[in-house]
Amino acid sequence: MSDPRTSLTPSSAFLLVVIFAAFGAQQTAVKLAVTDIGQIAQAALRSFGGAGLLAGWFLWRRSNPFAAPLALSVLLGVLFAIDFGLLYLGIALTSASHATVLYSTAPMMIAIAAMTAIADEPFDTRKIAGIAIAFSGVAIVALVRPSGGSATRVGDLLCLGAAAAWALTVLVVRATCLKTVDAPVVLFHQLFWSVPLLAATARVTGETVRFGPVAVGSLAFQTIAVAFVGYLIFFRLLQLHPASQVSAMSFLAPLFGVLSAWAILDEVPTPGFAAGAGAILTGLYLTNRAPRTGRDPRRLPRDRPSAAAAPQKSPPPGACR
Predict the structure, then answer these.
(1) Which backbone phi and psi does 209 adopt, to 5 degrees?
(2) Closest C-alpha among 224, 243, 261, 79 to residue 163
(3) pLDDT, tens digit, for every residue of 173-214?
């Protein structure tokens, strides 16, 4: 059967630019609201709001959002909580630009594991070169300390830990029957089951929650624009177009993250940081770029910004229960 997906159209490419701009600007939004709402509380409210919006979407479509095994669903929620818990903590301790760029190393971690641990992809010299370039960029970024102490090594390490949690989530999806479950369902389980863990953590640590105008705007952006609308449109584009063409544009997210931090938070990139970020962006592009020959360019690992697999056709009853 022929693949119904078509090459990326100009309108779809424009939508991807907007989506990845939103994904990249999310770290800046977190940083803006952290004085009013603690970072873990922000993550909990984002998950709660996103899960609620997705539940309404599933209800409107008259589909079942719980079409996945309970144990795997809870595991996804725990990993998601660790992922965004570490990321939001890291954002509070480093610059938004550092957080965005370092968090974008997750696809390189996924590519390494895909070629080794779960072995569902052949070794690819282009990807290996991209990974090497990217992690050389990580080393440069880690050594660059902007003036004023806004970026700490602890914060950078937390963001790298978040990237590792994102990568582990994708590997769990790809190595289990969850790879047959539609991506919006996987995202719902991540959001739904992460709420109690994140909320309990915020409560124990005594984080403050004050709903000022900036905090409300930041949460609305994180929840509606990113966790709900952004991901749903992203999944739809993955259904319409080859995943390799869609993910090849993911390097735009850290690029827009750096630009938004510069424009809104006045985080001026230093030459050293620009060099390291450039290496990471180059590595990300090479890792996600479709191969020229030898393989169907429409086949690629099911990596995505929210850590689930690319949408698949609905599995037969009982395929993943």
Answers:
(1) -135, 110
(2) 79
(3) 888 888 888 889 999 999 999 999 999 999 999 998 999 999
